[in-house]
Amino acid sequence: MMSKNLRAGLIGLGMMGRHHARNLRALEGVDLVAVADPQGDPHGAAPGYEVLPNVEALIEAGLDYCVVAVPTAFHRDVALALVEAGVHTLVEKPLAFDIIEAEEITNAFESKGLVGAVGYIERYNPALQEMRKRIENGQLGDIYQISTRRQGIFPARIADVGVVKDLATHDLDLTAFVSRSNFAQVSAVTTGKSGREYEDMVSIAGRLADGTITNHLVNWLSPFKERVTIVTGEKGALVGDTLTADLTFHANGETVNEWDAIASFRGVSEGDTVRYALNRKEPLRTEHEAFRDAVRGDASNIVTMREGLNTVRAVEAVLDSAAAGRTVAL
């Protein structure tokens, strides 16, 4: 009897690819049938597999879907080869190096009716998955502001981009995710203090299409690691820590104001605070399960290529804003 498991491939066995390999090999309902990387398998991520030289050899193995974990500069060529072969594809973030390439990839997958997704792993953090559910269920009421902080030390593996394309892209994506609204405008300032060609600090002020204001502090020059998302609304605030996968709710308190001069000011006071106990499941595993399910017909929990394209647009707007010293509308 033939196996009904999906046949998966992986191209790219580097720092991120090795984790994809581990998850694909353990994923229920999926067989990892082939891997490829012109540099071989430096981390020993795929023992027992022949490491194929390119995407063409990978396609010849006969795939239902493929995970692309090559450097961003090669995303376009690899993704277009896969779509031409009719292979559903999950591309590591960001979708492409620039807007033109991202549009080309997105349009190709949509026109062929194939499942295309982008690997924004932060979306699958238990804290953010639970945050979005609670926001959708009305726990915060109207959303007023979304603020994120993503700070830490410089990752030596990054050589081809600055902190905006490597890290801030996560914050722009997850902000659109929890709010269900795209960016309408951004105003950003960047600086470079490490002596590299690219920026290593950015501060972004934004506004979403639904009117929510946002703020994002991102750098890789801090001697501590911080990954925090704060969503403030009319009924309180949710604070998600994606390092610990904790989610905390700070409710607005009830106050009686008897001072006529300020009685009309609609402020808030401290209310109850609750930290939720979450099922701390590896985000990458959840991402792989979501894409497997999408290939089978349930695409409710993937980051679509269209969403990935919108994030590339936001990233480019941030860099344009910082370079020109002005607010950029999307």
Polypeptide structure, described:
By secondary structure, this protein is α/β, with parallel strands linked by helices. About 30% of the residues lie in helices and about 30% in strands. It has a nine-stranded mixed β-sheet with strand order 14-13-12-11-7-10-9-8-15. Strand 1, helix 1 (about 15-25) and strand 2 form a beta-alpha-beta unit. Helix 5 (about 125-135) runs parallel beside helix 6 and helix 6 (about 165-180) crosses helix 8. The N and C termini lie far apart (about 55 Å). The mean pLDDT is about 95.
TL;DR of this structure?
The protein is built from 8 helices and 15 strands.
- N-to-C series of helices and strands: EHEEHEHEHEHEHEEEEEEEHHE
Q: For the residues shown, what is the average pLDDT?
A: 93
Q: Globular, elongated, flat, extended or rod-shaped: what is the shape?
A: globular
**Number of strand segments:** 15
Protein name: Dehydrogenase
Family: Belongs to the Gfo/Idh/MocA family.
Pfam families: GFO_IDH_MocA, GFO_IDH_MocA_C
Domain Gfo/Idh/MocA-like oxidoreductase N-terminal: 7-120
SSE inventory with pairings:
Elements: E1 6-11, H1 17-26, E2 30-36, E3 51-52, H2 55-60, E4 65-68, H3 75-84, E5 88-92, H4 99-112, E6 116-119, H5 126-136, E7 143-151, H6 163-179, E8 183-191, E9 201-208, E10 213-219, E11 226-233, E12 236-241, E13 246-253, E14 269-276, H7 283-295, H8 305-324, E15 328-329
Parallel strand pairs: 1-2, 1-4, 2-3, 4-5, 5-6, 7-10
Antiparallel strand pairs: 7-11, 8-9, 8-15, 9-10, 11-12, 12-13, 13-14
Helix pairs in contact: 3-4, 4-8, 5-6, 6-8
Pfam families: GFO_IDH_MocA, GFO_IDH_MocA_C
InterPro entries: Gfo/Idh/MocA-like_OxRdtase_C (IPR004104), Gfo/Idh/MocA-like_OxRdtase_N (IPR000683), Gfo/Idh/MocA_Oxidoreductases (IPR051450), NAD(P)-bd_dom_sf (IPR036291)
Protein name: Dehydrogenase
